[in-house]
Amino acid sequence: MKFQVEREVLAEAVSWTARSLSPRPPVPVLSGLLLKAAAGTLSLASFDYEISARLEIPADVSEEGTILVSGRLLADICRSLPSAPVDVETDGSKVTLSCRNSRFNLATMPENDYPELPALPQVSGVVSGEAFAQAVSQVIIASSKDDTLPILTGVKMEIEGDLITLLATDRYRLALREVHWRPNVPGISTSALVKAKTLNEVARTLGGAGDLNIALSDNSELIGFESGGRRTTSLLVDGDYPKIRSLFPDNTPIHATVETSALSEAVRRVSLVAERNTPVRLAFTDGQLSLDAGTGEDAQASEVLETALVGEDITVAFNPHYLSEGLNAFDSKFVRFSFTSAPKPAMITAQDDIDGEDRDDYRYLVMPVRLPNP
């Protein structure tokens, strides 16, 4: 095999494909990238039995062939090369990379031992990559990082007609985001539980390339994403996701609207004195929101903001990390807090102006921290 490709193109392609490599592959060959050079194209692929990634880039191919090389080593080498064309050539069980005065010799792995990559399922529909990426970023903050509860490390994708609903929870907060798409089959009704880590990678690396194809297998075991000549597949998380939709309240007699950026900054400042696992308190009264943290002889902080309150006064407390992450996920000028009562979870939604209606396409529900009795 012999080909030449621009360093920037090769480095970016290798870096993207190598992201899917497992840090602890079940077999040594799965630490490799599979490179195939043919007819003016170089294809790169990775696979770890759960996630696959593949793409094609243009290359000046002199001799066609296939090699399997260490993915992380190849990525490190490509990043270090000078900005110039890279010549890649095999010689027996070795592969040589040359770029200006730099030269690297790498051992190849037995490509015959490499498993066959899963095929991308038939495309189920198309969504705006930018809209999908934003929706994913707003929801995955509520997914669990605890691998002992694998179900909660996933994001539930519920698909009904032209609407995709993303849901996530770690038991202390919930997030729901709706995004429209263009299904290939009208009236489609299905669901998939996808690892939050996988969705985050798709959103970051494929979300900016225009339309994003979403492909669901008929047996509900595999999901695929494709955009800009890149495609990735992932096994779905196995298990029944908890029915969390019902936890979002239907009736909330108390509403408070606050400017998003002002509140986010106030929470950040006040929580500087909040020791680990101690809450930030929010007291909503007519026209005023008082924030405070810290107690007794320890450091204390407080701040006052304007608010528009509908309903009776209410004082609640939240984990500052959960509250900050939720607020930072909103891009609206205002956020609305909706309460049923102080001990019950608070729902946060977007609001464009202080007296307007809230938008419920994104809902963030956070559990309060119980305040001690006065």
Any idea what the CATH architecture of the largest domain is?
Answer: Roll
Would you identify the regions where 5 or more consecutive residues have pLDDT less than 50? none
* Strand count: 27
Which strand-content bin applies to the residues?
Answer: 35-45%
Approximate helicity band: 10-25%
Name of the top-level CATH class of the largest domain: Alpha Beta
The major beta sheet can be summarized as:
9 strands, antiparallel
Q: CATH topology of the largest domain, which one?
A: DNA Polymerase III, Chain A, domain 2
Coarse morphology: elongated
What would you call the structural class?
alpha+beta
Q: What is the fourth-level CATH superfamily of the largest domain?
A: DNA Polymerase III, subunit A, domain 2
Individual helix count: 6
Question: Which short descriptors sum up this protein?
Answer:
374 residues, alpha+beta, DNA Polymerase III, Chain A, domain 2, 3 domains, nine-stranded antiparallel beta sheet, 44% strand, elongated
SSE layout and pairings?
Blueprint: E1 2-6, H1 7-18, E2 32-38, E3 41-47, E4 51-58, E5 60-63, E6 65-70, H2 71-80, E7 85-91, E8 94-99, E9 102-107, E10 123-128, H3 129-139, E11 154-160, E12 163-169, E13 173-180, E14 182-183, E15 189-195, H4 196-206, E16 211-216, E17 222-227, E18 230-235, E19 254-259, H5 260-270, E20 280-285, E21 288-293, E22 301-306, E23 308-310, E24 314-318, H6 320-328, E25 334-339, E26 346-351, E27 358-366
Antiparallel strand pairs: 1-5, 1-7, 2-3, 2-6, 3-4, 4-18, 7-8, 8-9, 10-14, 10-16, 11-12, 11-15, 12-13, 13-27, 16-17, 17-18, 19-23, 19-25, 20-21, 20-24, 21-22, 25-26, 26-27
Helix pairs in contact: 1-2, 3-4, 5-6
